[in-house]
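Weekend entry, working from home. Most of the wet-lab plans are on hold until the incubator is repaired, so I used the time to fold the two sequences that have been sitting in the queue since the last round of cloning. Logging both here for the record. First:
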Amino acid sequence: MEELKFEKVEKNSCPVRQTLDMIGGKWPFAIIYALVQGTKRFKELERSIDGINTRMLVKELKALEASGIVNRKAYATVPPTVEYSLTEKGKELQPVLSEIQKWALKYI
């Protein structure tokens, strides 16, 4: 396992803190985990995340899209069809999720 190297950083510029500000919280990892499995429509995504409500999912998806982690593709259909997928940046979080899952299975 690669050893973590903690460099001295200026206040408010810690990369771990900045990452957690971007994807921390209760729902972002659940959304990313659901999208690792492939592109999903909004309702499909909502059903795959136990306990999330529509308003929270919309809010979190907008934040993840603004961070460049999630891609939103809207189709001009009636009713409107919207699909969500991970960007390349988002896909690079898969190993992180895998390690968190391993840790959880071992200690929780």
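Second, folded right after the first finished:
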Amino acid sequence: MKNQILTDMVYNRLSKKDLSAVKGKLAIQVNLTGKIGGVFYIEILDGVLSVMPYEYIDRDATISVAISNLQKIVSGKLDIDKAIAEGKMKVEGDIDKLLLFKDILQK
């Protein structure tokens, strides 16, 4: 799957969510691991969503995950906590921002 298709999928899924809980900036960089690597970021700035296929220097947190697992997480087929516990996803950075992102994604 090309990164643009993946970023479009993530954008389409998140654009249907209520992003009003985000006051200020929430910036998550996603590092794609596995055979097909890559990077993109998800930014919510005062409730406005951007998903772009670039690194985000001033990010709040980083998620490292394989494309297949990211697809399952975004589609709701894989729980984020389970993905982390099983080592399918690694997270680092501001835990409060990560929890806010998790809440948005799983609603």
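Plan for Monday: verify the second prediction. The longest helix spans residues 3-15.
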